Every structure is written in structure tokens, then in C-alpha cells.
Amino acid sequence: MATSTTIPITHETPRVLLYAIERIVAISAVRRACIVTQKVFETMVKGDHFTKSDESPVTVGDFAAQALISQIIHTVFPDDPIVGEEDASELYSPEKKEILHNITSIVNEGLTADRLDYEKEDWAIGLGRDISPQEVRENIDRGKHNGGNVGRMWTIDPIDGTKGFLRGGQYAVCVSLILDGEPVVGVIGCPNLPHDLNNPEGKKGWIFSAVKEQGAQRFTINGLDPIPLGMPSVSPESIVVLESVESGHSSHSFNSRVRELLTLKEPSLQMDSQAKYCSLAMGRGHLYLRMPTRPDYEEKIWDHAPGALLIKEAGGQVTDSRGKQLNFGLGRTLGKNYGVVACGSEVHSRVIDSVQAALEESRERAKMN
Ligand SMILES: Nc1ncnc2c1ncn2[C@@H]1O[C@H](COP(=O)(O)OS(=O)(=O)O)[C@@H](OP(=O)(O)O)[C@H]1O
Ligand SMILES: [Mg+2]
Ligand SMILES: [Mg+2]
Ligand SMILES: [Mg+2]
């Protein structure tokens, strides 16, 4: 849909306008998806989920949030492909009809929720229209794109950290725009992240956004007063490591060896989802370390694209364990898994050296066994 607010991008366009509409559309979609997932959490029978073929959980919230985000993006950018985590294959059988209807009414609540000021622009014309169960499935299945390194594509992780979501812990609603294999817009909603980290029982909900070469900000979930993000520098011995809650997703034992090699004193901070990247960008934690627990697992692009851009734009560095850039142009995954290391630029090379030393030790141990 062409909108009158679509700004033509020419070589004369001031840089600050690049991706302005994409950013605001992603923020709107993420905020509305957060409304939906919070609603699902409040109303669902605790822990209610389906199990996917890879044994991982998926909830009504994951389906609803992906349908809603895909609907909003597709209305404004109908030619852009989408790489989304979920597919609707579960939602075609007659016995799932009631669940599909539940998902549809939750999606429509999200689409028709009151508009904030930034949603009163022409691009938001599609908001406020109810969609049908069939459209819900089509929106979810639009996420089947295979990725690649040519042109524009969006990623959607409707609930990152589904296990965290089910536990009432941290989770994140994650959207990115990738151009020629490189993330250029990233938006992450963290409904359960406290406004004041020292008051975990107080108000909650942050949205984080980053645009390539335009910096990164956070703002409260219903506002748009941006607080710029810049990672504070940290002395190497004061580093706090951020890691997954699930030890099956990232090796805790490897991380603890790296902490020994770096002579860190602080305990690591375990947190679900890309909320780790957000926490890092806010200076709560200084090193996100994610090393594979299984040789065959390939990290998914939607689990890292917005978070990696957020860290870069906040002044940090994100690489694999060899210090190489993550490659978002290989398809739906990052390819062979060499882990992820995200931290401040001033400590990055020291961290990579320790990670490589710990890897060498594991190889030596494996040879002896
Ligand atoms: N074996 C294995 N290794 C590495 N990563 C895996 C693995 N299995 C799953 N996943 C992905 O982990 C995503 C959840 O992120 P985290 O591990 O950071 O959070 S958590 O501690 O699991 O809550 C999770 O994202 P969601 O499915 O969106 O929750 C998965 O994509
Ligand atoms: Mg995920
Ligand atoms: Mg997910
Ligand atoms: Mg999942």
C-alpha cells in the first residue's frame, strides 16, 4: 500500500530519514504484539502450550503475535518477504478450529487497540480492521521465506524465550528488517522488564529500537520519549556475564570456565530471550556469551538480528566465538554454530582470547577421552 507519508529515499535524503517509516511500523507492531502476549499470559491456563516437532514449545501467544506483526508489516510493505519463526500448519485441522478462533479474536484486539500519537499517520490505515481466521493463518504462513543475502526481508520472533514466557520470566517480541544480509532496523519489546531495575515489582515494559548508523534507544511500552542507549565501559574484572536460563540452549559450564579465565568475581546473570541483548545495551550485564550445546544446532536469524543491531548501535560488538561477524544472509539460520559473543568494544578482543583458550582446553580434553 502506497502511503502519502512514505518518504522517497534518494541520495539527497538526509540520513536520519532512512528507515523512519520502517522503524515506526516495527515499533507499532511490536507494541501491539506485546499487548496480545500479555493478554494471553493473563488469561491462559498456566503453562498451556503445544509441542513442535523439534520438541520446543509454542503457545497461542506466539501464533497471535506473529499473525499481528505480519499483518501490520504486510499492509505497509506488501512486497517485503518475511522470515518468521512460526508456521500455521497446526491450525488447519478441524479440531483446532476453536483455538484458531481464540487466536483470531486476540489478534483483532491487538489490531484495534487505541492508537498512540505515532499511529495517527497514513501508514497506520490498516490498523483498526478486524481480520478473519483464514487471514490469521495466511499472515502466520507469510513467515515461511527462506532468507538470503539479496534485498529486503523482515524477521519476526513473536515470542523469543517461549519457555521464559511460560514461566512468567523474561521474554521478548522481536522484529528486524534486513537489507542484503545486514540488519538495518531492529525492535525488541520486553513486557516483563522492570522500568526501574532496582524495583523489580514496580512498573514493567520497555521497547528497544535501533537503526543502522542512527543509534539505539529505549522507551516505555506506551510512550515514545526515547532514552538513548550507549554501553558504559567496564573494567575487565568487573564484567557480569549474561546467559540463557536454559542450559540446553547455551553451555553454562563453558561460560563458567571463561569466567575463570577472565578472573571474574561477579556471578553470571541468567535471563531468557533477547532481553539479554537489551539488558546489555542498558549496561546491566556486560557480556552475552552463548556457546552451542549441540554440534548440529544452527542459531536462527530471528533470535539475533535485532539484538545484534541494538548492541552495535549502542557502541558494542557482536561476533561469533572466532571474532567473525554474524552472517544474516545465509538463510533462516546463521549456519554452522560458532557461538555468539556480544560485549563492549574495549573488552571484546580479551573475551575472544579467553573463549578460544577455553575451546582449546575442551578440544584437548576430548582428545584424551
Ligand atoms: N539447542 C539449542 N541451542 C541454542 N538455542 C536454542 C536451542 N533450542 C532452542 N533454541 C533457541 O533459544 C531461544 C531462546 O533463547 P534463550 O536461550 O536466550 O532463552 S531461554 O533461556 O531459553 O529462555 C529459542 O527461541 P524461542 O523458540 O523463540 O523461545 C530458540 O530459538
Ligand atoms: Mg527465539
Ligand atoms: Mg519464538
Ligand atoms: Mg520457539
TrEMBL record:
Record: residues binding Mg(2+): E85, D157, I159, D160, D303
Catalytic activity: adenosine 2',5'-bisphosphate + H2O = AMP + phosphate; adenosine 3',5'-bisphosphate + H2O = AMP + phosphate; 3'-phosphoadenylyl sulfate + H2O = adenosine 5'-phosphosulfate + phosphate
E.C. number: 3.1.3.7
Domain of life: Eukaryota
UniProt record similarity statement: Belongs to the inositol monophosphatase superfamily.
Entry keyword annotation includes Metal-binding: yes
Organism: Agaricus bisporus var. burnettii (strain JB137-S8 / ATCC MYA-4627 / FGSC 10392)
GO molecular function, one term: 3'(2'),5'-bisphosphate nucleotidase activity
GO BP terms in the entry: sulfate assimilation
EC class of the enzyme, as a word: hydrolase
Keywords for the protein's UniProt record, in alphabetical order: Hydrolase, Magnesium, Metal-binding
Alphabetized Pfam families for the sequence: Inositol_P
Keyword match Metal-binding: yes
Cofactors demanded by this protein: Mg(2+)
InterPro entries in UniProt: DPNP, Inositol_monoP_metal-BS, Inositol_monoP_superfamily, Inositol_monophosphatase-like
Protein name stated in the entry: 3'(2'),5'-bisphosphate nucleotidase
